[in-house]
Amino acid sequence: MTSAAGSSSDHSFRVLALDGGGIKGTFAAAVLASFEETLGSPLVDYFDLIAGTSTGGIIALGLGLGLPSKQILDFYETRGPQIFVGARGLLGRVLGPKYDDYSLREALEEVFGDRLLGDAQTRLVIPSLNLETGQVHVFKTAHHERFERDYKERVVDVALATAAAPTYFRTHRLPAGTPLIDGGLWANNPMGAAAVEALGVLEWPKGSVKLLSISCTESPPSIRERSGSGLGLRRWVPHLVDTFMNAQSSGSVGTATLLLGGENVYRISHNVTGDRYKLDGIEGIESLKGLGASVARHEYPNVKVNFLTEKALRFIPKYGAA
Fold this sequence. Notes:
With 322 residues, the chain is an alpha/beta fold. It has one domain (13-221, 235-308): Cytosolic phospholipase A2 catalytic domain (3-Layer(aba) Sandwich). It is built from eleven helices and eight strands. α2 (55-64) packs antiparallel against α6 (155-162), α3 runs antiparallel to α5 (102-112) and α5 (102-112) runs antiparallel to α6 (155-162). The protein is globular, with a radius of gyration of 19 Å.
């Protein structure tokens, strides 16, 4: 008996979801690199679906193409300081993004070249947002009959689109002219989107799907009301982004847990103070790398038992290269 995805119904499907977070992706990359080094085998071989947003999307694309996790970590260490350098002054930031995306594009082209989304070795889901229509734009491999176009997109374009964080980088336009920005505006934590894809699109049986989620560290809100007047604009503004991101992440965790069952959802994260690491804080790269390795050492036994004991079934796309 086979499911709608053309896979054995008794197979345990495993999903990997990777949060956005700018240079804080170093943490997730370090966790994955440590897992892969200990396992001694490519992680892509063990997951039937990988979802990633923004910096998590870049990692997901790298994993999907079969790049070693260590190479992805090296990308953050060596190219991160070059990408987040030369921030514009205050006036420049008022008139345009904080950074030019030239260094990011150059770094991505060096790693991915002209490879296409259809070259991925597993199913990928990469969220973005269409700035023209205001609707979500999710890049997907050809893992369903309806997905006839995205597999032809250059991986570099997909990466630039999902990572085009407002105020940090300019809007990315696809060759067809579609203006796209960071998928983190609606799915910075893509667990919910990944769970919906697994059950709603691929029609994998509920109870047969396990999801591993890795964050880029988290900073829970710590705003305390000190007067009866509540929080004013001056106190809210510095915390708006963190509050929004934590709220979206909480909702995404809840969605995935409800759809898949709490026993099938496993999230790896680490709470830090709000100002410990920044989206463009290149001074924190080494610390994030060490933190990721430490967390991975603690988490590996459980991750291995639940996600790394059986390889995924071979992914055969509906269109493009097999």
